[in-house]
Amino acid sequence: MRFAINHISAPKLGLAEFFAMTRRLGATEVEIRNDLPDVMGSMDPAEVRAEAERQGVTILSINALYPFNVWSGDLPDRAVAMADYAQACGARAVVMCPLNDGTEVAFDDLVAALKAMKPILQERGLTGLVEPLGFPVSSLRRKATAIEAIKAADGEGAYKLMHDTFHHHLAGETEFFPEWTGLVHISGVTDQHVAVEDMLDAHRVLVDGDDRLENLPQIKALLEAGYDGPFSFEPFAAEVHDAADPEAALKDSIGHIQAAA
Question: d(Cα 203, Cα 118) in Å, to the nearest integer?
Answer without folding.
Answer: 33
